[in-house]
Design a protein that fits this description.
The chain has helices at 3-6, 11-21, 29-32, 61-64, 73-83, 97-109, 123-140, 161-165, 170-173, 194-211, 235-247, 300-304, 324-339, 342-360, 394-401, 426-446; strands at 40-44, 47-50, 55-58, 114-120, 148-152, 184-186, 215-220, 224-225, 231-232, 251-255, 279-282, 294-299, 366-372, 375-380, 407-408, 415-418. The protein is α/β, with parallel strands linked by helices. The protein has two domains: 38-68 and 341-446, Aspartate Aminotransferase, domain 1; 74-339, Type I PLP-dependent aspartate aminotransferase-like (Major domain) (Aspartate Aminotransferase, domain 2, 3-Layer(aba) Sandwich). The strands form four sheets. It has a seven-stranded mixed beta sheet, with helices on both faces. A four-stranded mixed beta sheet has the order 1-2-3-15. α5 packs antiparallel against α13, α6 runs parallel beside α13 and α14 (342-360) packs parallel to α16 (426-446). It is globular and about 65 Å long. It starts with a helix and ends with a helix. The model has no long low-confidence stretch (mean pLDDT 96). The protein binds pyridoxal-5'-phosphate. Pyridoxal-5'-phosphate binds at residues 122-124, 127, 156-158, 221, 226-227, 255, 257-258, 283.
Length: 447
């Protein structure tokens, strides 16, 4: 290694290079250019460490990917061992050891009737693949009229164009309107409130009845619509909609990119439902966020629809499909669920947060909060209960201020998202709750 590369980078020089050369995702650079970026230099467990050595609780699990924590010895070792064998080889015409082992393990742990694994490298690509599989399956089953997709209002399934077509967050998606295919939108509640759900359900069922013959599939984020601001519906609401979708001949795609790998309390949110999926999309926590890895799981019925003559082939694949390093990380991560009893910890931390949030919900600046497992949204409001003017960017400023209390958060509008890594400790949850309380009190003083 050269002397040059051993020199610690000065944080201000790094920030300068960032402002000069980088284009950040979902970021307005007119604002970014004015800000002092937090430079993450290392990490450990549920904590991020900046270039000055300050520690922060990773309160959104590095964009919802963290399960077992940063620099987990088992995941580190799995990747290092794989590096000594082969870093990448293609799954087009070849196979490899970690991709095969991970597929077998995933199917053992996934809900029935999932039986096949198709890899890609992002949640969005996992969704594209599920949409194309559903469409092609229907065509090959002789249902040429089934060309449309039903999806939830406010849905978020990623940023590639197919995923955007089945999305419903105007601020992200509206500009691309002319490029998108049309979909059938179904209503969803903000909170899983029975009276609201009963009303919306009638509307959703009537739409499915009317559009049923044209539907290839329905795609949903089960139980929690994360990017929409942690909107939540009940299992009963979703079961009724999925049962109707199946009745009218649509395939069921569960997008568990955010809810998968223990987030909602069970390994997959699908386990809390009565209606089984035909296809599932996985990403984020699959590799504990170490390497870009995603998977689309299919039932044997779907897979068999592609077996036969060459024209039935699923003509889709990405260069890094089944990357051995990423898959080796994935195998280690799945084994850890059993070895570390990860879901037992999730239940305990979810209960702790539930109690803490109940106390905080009385605060004048909390309009409401929603929680399923370790997926939480806290809606901020003015002292009189009214929403803040979105232009004030109160949620962003609130989260930014919590860095002084050693917590990194990223909001969705004025909804503060709490999604710590599943390995978060009891003491770290106390830190998170105390930081929130401090932030709310500071907000009160500011008003
Ligand atoms: C439910 C859901 N689907 C898909 C995606 C897209 O995943 P990626 O950002 O890895 O493309 C996300 C990302 O947040 C998501 O929450």
């Amino acid at each position: 290694m050269s002397e040059q590369s051993n020199k610690p980078e000065s944080p201000s020089a790094l920030a300068e290079s960032d402002r000069r050369f980088l284009w950040h995702p979902f970021t307005q650079h007119a604002e970014w250019q004015e800000s002092e970026p937090l430079v993450i230099a290392s990490a450990e467990g549920a904590e991020l460490i900046d270039s000055e050595g300050r520690r922060y609780l990773d309160g959104v699990a590095s964009l919802w990917v963290g399960v077992h924590g940063h620099r987990h010895p088992k995941v580190d070792a799995a990747i290092k061992a794989q590096l000594d064998r082969v870093a990448h080889s293609t799954l087009l015409g070849l196979t490899n050891v970690p991709a095969t082992r991970l597929a077998e393990k995933l199917i053992q742990m996934a809900p029935a009737p999932m039986s096949r694994v198709f890899y890609s490298d992002a949640g969005s690509t996992a969704v594209e693949i599920a949409l194309k599989m559903a469409f092609q399956w229907q065509q090959q089953a002789g249902d040429a009229k089934r060309t449309r997709f039903a999806r939830f209002e406010h849905a978020y399934h990623g940023d590639t164009l197919g995923a955007v077509s089945v999305g419903g967050i105007d601020i992200f998606h509206q500009v691309y309107g002319p490029l998108l295919f049309e979909t059938v939108a179904l209503p969803t509640p903000l909170h899983p409130d029975p009276a609201t759900e009963a009303k919306l359900l009638q509307q959703a069922l009537a739409t499915l009845e009317a559009e049923g013959e044209a539907l290839a599939a329905i795609i949903v984020e089960p139980l929690v619509q994360g990017a929409a601001g942690m909107r939540m519906h009940s299992p009963a609401y979703l079961n009724a909609i999925l049962a109707k979708a199946k009745e009218v001949g649509a395939l069921v795609i569960l997008d568990e990119v955010a809810t998968g790998f223990g987030r909602t309390g069970t390994l997959f949110a699908a386990e809390q439902l009565e209606v089984a999926p035909d296809l599932m999309c996985l990403g984020k926590g699959l590799s504990n966020g170490y390497l870009p890895l995603a998977a689309t799981l299919a039932s044997e019925r779907i897979f068999q629809g592609f077996v036969g003559s060459p024209r039935k082939t699923f003509f889709h694949g990405h260069t890094f499909t089944g990357n051995p390093l990423a898959c080796a990380a994935g195998v280690a991560c799945l084994e850890l669920f059993e070895e570390e009893q990860t879901l037992v910890g999730v239940a305990a931390r979810a209960r702790q947060l539930e109690t803490g949030l109940k106390a905080l919900s009385a605060h004048a600046h909390v309009a409401a909060h929603r929680q399923r497992g370790l997926m939480i949204g806290v809606d901020l409001c003015q002292g009189n209960g009214e929403a803040f003017d979105p232009r004030a960017r109160t949620g962003a400023r609130f989260c930014q201020s919590l860095r002084a209390r050693g917590v990194v958060l990223r909001p969705l509008g004025d909804t503060v998202v709490l999604m710590p890594p599943l390995c978060v400790s009891e003491g770290q949850v106390v830190q998170l709750l105390e930081a929130l309380k401090w932030g709310l009190e500071a907000l009160e003083q500011e008003q």
